[in-house]
Amino acid sequence: MDRSGELAALGHDVRSELDAANAAREIALAACRRTIRACGSSIRAVHLLRPEEALRLADEAGGALREAQEALAPFPSLVGSGPLHDAAKEYAEARLTAAMVGDDPLPSAVDLGVSPAAWLNGLAEAASELRRHLLDRLRQGDLSRSETLLATMDEAYGLLVTMDYPDAVSGGLRRTTDALRAVLERTRGDLTTTFLQARLQNALDQASTALD
Length: 212
Known about the structure:
Layout: H1 3-47, H2 51-72, H3 76-79, H4 82-101, H5 109-112, H6 116-139, H7 143-160, H8 167-170, H9 173-211
């Protein structure tokens, strides 16, 4: 047996497979970076009340994510890698944030083409993003809208705490949910304080009117 020739042939096959996997990984990493960058810009556009820009950027992010997923499809061992999961989570966050702010139906994991774990973590991040939007509405004196947004945050948290799975299955959801709980309680406190201040101001105005 020509062991040297045998090893050379086997090594050639393995090297070819790894070269292809590495090339796919590089394509996916670049696409994942574009996905995350576009998602961040999309969420910012949502907060700035620029829905058309937010949609355009989210569509751009979706295209980049599909590119990453397609590049890694032939290599299942790389599909569950961190960058792809993070990009899918950010994409879910961008779409869900826009839907929550716009009072639109929430897209499912299947709708978005992401894993259940990415969708759940995206939901937690999107609910946390509502804090910024809520505070913007508070500054404009829209207490009713702020209360609605807080209720949405609370409902998202209520779902997430029922997803009790190991981190390997949920993508670290427990940590993300704990972070949302802290944001939710802080936001609830801010809204309660604002309501009390508004009530006090209203009482003072009524007393002043009565004295006049």
